[in-house]
Amino acid sequence: MTDKNAKLSVGGKTIELPIFSGTEGPDVIDVRGLVAEGVFTYDPGFMSTAACESKITFIDGDNGILLHRGFPIEQLAESSDYLELCFLLLHGELPSKEESENFRATVQNHTMVHDQLTHFFNGFRRDAHPMAVMCGVVGALSAFYHDSMDFSDQDHREIAAFRLIAKMPTLAAMCYKYSLGQPFMYPRNNLNYAENFLHMMFSTPCGDYEINPVIARAMDRIFMLHADHEQNASTSTVRLAGSTGANPFACIASGIAALWGPAHGGANEAVLTMLEEIGDEAHIDTFIAKAKDKNDPFRLMGFGHRVYKNFDPRAKVMRQTCDEVLSVLGKQDDPLLKIAKRLEQIALEDQYFIDRKLYPNVDFYSGIILRAIGIPVSMFTVIFAMSRTIGWFAHWNEMVSGNYKIGRPRQLYTGYSKRDYPSK
Ligand code: SDX
């Protein structure tokens, strides 16, 4: 942080505000002193507001760069795996061989859920949206584990991390099985993280799902690409919920709720729905016109981003993974992939998208991969939530481990001034 100051003239008075510099990214103006001067900042949507200081993830939107504890996502996707990334996001450094073995073993020993938790599913309709179920059952985790509820204790926070990393795939697969009317499949401790998820999703008591290593590796890479992304809407929701001292499992459930929206994590599901609605390359121009029409609420799902004004680096890795998976499954002629690639090409050449710097984001290709693997569209955002749980928890942990205040934004009030209740 530096000793530079910004000068602001308000009501004929000049106010000096400190400017802080991070290791990367724009400087920030510390506006905390403004409330004493009787003014607020006004920034709906937090377009230019840094809500916190963090060391976990950095995004350079103009240059399409995403760093997790300084490591570029492309290098992590190539050389790491999701559990190593979980360790990195939580602890700030890559694990040693021994740390990695201990971390993986601990996760493996927490993959089962309390048997009472299975009863929560029965209250839902079989056709309930899996994200509705996840909001419920993940929130319900806060009703367990009374042996470790003192979250000022680092050990209690650590066991909560292990329980969430380990149990999210189990709960996600249970959502899918419940929707099918199939029995829940128990996790297998002889499988790695992605293999175990595929097993719990697609095996039945009558027979095991045959795990294709290319598919398992792609699944793990999808988990990595969704793991964390700075102060996005759902992570900010988790931080705000956590700033009240709420139970971390309940805070994660609030993140799931925020992620569900189609403008955020729900976009992967919306992309598939959009591609199926386009149906044929011949219809692409009509949908591009709709996306550009101010009077039409339709937006090109999977395109655009609040921070990236260049390619989302995750989308590039996702597109490469998409080609790998469809090729190994013999589905390289998938019509939806063809529509997606043609749509991307047309949009990237269109002045409307060029002027607004709208590029494919992480959600544009992920759904095509998941669908090819046999995962239903309704489960796409559940997989995003599973993956992002480590990011949510890492940010919650970073906040509660340090000095923090309860988040309480102010407002620009434009309602009635004081008026008296009419006498009878
Ligand atoms: C995720 O924050 C994160 O990091 C999120 C995420 C993560 O990992 O956590 O990266 C995951 O949520 C990715 C985004 C997934 N959502 C979508 O794909 C939905 C479609 N995208 C848009 O809804 C939109 O691009 C947002 C929500 C992603 C970003 O919205 P902004 O930053 O508020 O941008 P905006 O709405 O102000 O758009 C600027 C202009 C507008 O046009 P003008 O008013 O300037 O004429 O671009 C237009 C918008 O109409 N625009 C689009 C568009 N996205 C923006 N026009 C058509 N299609 C689109 N997809």
Approximately how much beta-strand content do the residues carry?
5-15%
Q: What is the CA-CA span between the terminal residues?
A: 61 Å
Structural class: mainly alpha
Give average pLDDT, whole number: 95
Largest sheet: 3 strands, antiparallel
Number of strands: 6
Strand order of the largest sheet: 1-2-3
Kindly summarize this structure in a few lines.
By secondary structure, the chain is mainly α.
3D structure, described in words:
The chain is 48% helix and 6% strand. The protein is mainly α and 424 residues long. A 3-stranded antiparallel β-sheet has the order 1-2-3, with no helix packed on it. It has a 3-stranded antiparallel β-sheet with strand order 4-5-6. S-citryldethia Coenzyme A binds at residues 229, 232, 263-265, 267, 291, 299-307, 356, 358, 361-363. Residues 229, 232, 263-265, 267, 291, 299-307, 356, 358, 361-363 line the site of s-citryldethia Coenzyme A.
Provide the fold topology.
Layout: E1 4-10, E2 13-20, E3 28-29, E4 57-60, E5 65-68, E6 71-72, H1 73-79, H2 82-91, H3 97-108, H4 118-121, H5 130-140, H6 154-180, H7 193-202, H8 213-225, H9 233-242, H10 248-259, H11 267-278, H12 284-292, H13 313-328, H14 335-349, H15 351-355, H16 363-373, H17 380-400
Antiparallel strand pairs: 1-2, 2-3, 4-5, 5-6
Helix pairs in contact: 2-17, 3-6, 5-6, 5-10, 6-7, 6-17, 7-8, 8-13, 8-16, 8-17, 9-10, 9-17, 10-17, 11-16, 13-16
